[in-house]
Design a protein that fits this description.
The chain is mainly alpha-helical. The protein has 3 helices and 2 strands; from the N terminus they run αβαβα. The longest helix has 20 residues.
Length: 118
C-alpha cells in the first residue's frame, strides 16, 4: 500500500470517528435563545413573459418587493432575455400594455408617441 493510500485511509477513518463521536448533523441546544433568529420570505421559482409567465420581469420584482419578500429568483425556461418581446393585442396584449404603462408612470416614466400608426 502506498503512503498516499495510507494517508487517505487514515484521514477517512478520522472523519468517520468524528462523525460517530459527534453524531451526524447539527445538534440543537434547547437552552439556546432564538430571539435573534429570523425567517426570510422569498420565491426561487418565478416565470416572466420571457417564458410562460404573465408579467414583465421588472413588474414581477416590484410586486415581490411591495409584498415584503426578501429574495427572488426569476427562473424562466431555457431562454436568454435578449431582443424584443412583443405582446400581441389578440392575446390580451392591450390590457398587458396598459398595465405596463401604468407601472412605468408610477415609477416616473411616461410614454411619448412620436407617430400615430393608426
Amino acid at each position: 500500500m502506498s503512503s498516499r493510500c495510507v494517508i487517505q485511509y487514515v484521514f477517512f477513518v478520522i472523519l468517520i470517528a468524528i462523525n460517530f463521536n459527534n453524531g451526524v448533523g447539527a445538534k440543537i441546544n434547547p437552552d439556546q435563545k432564538t430571539s435573534n433568529s429570523k425567517w426570510w420570505k422569498g420565491n426561487l421559482h418565478t416565470h416572466s413573459f420571457w417564458s410562460d409567465g404573465d408579467d414583465f420581469p421588472e413588474m414581477i420584482v416590484s410586486w415581490y418587493v411591495e409584498n415584503g419578500y426578501n429574495f427572488l429568483a426569476l427562473s424562466d425556461h431555457n431562454i436568454l432575455q435578449e431582443g424584443d418581446k412583443w405582446i400581441f393585442p389578440a392575446a390580451g396584449g392591450e390590457a398587458v400594455a396598459k398595465t405596463y404603462l401604468n407601472y412605468l408612470e408610477r415609477n416616473g416614466l411616461k410614454q411619448r408617441k412620436i407617430r400615430n400608426w393608426d
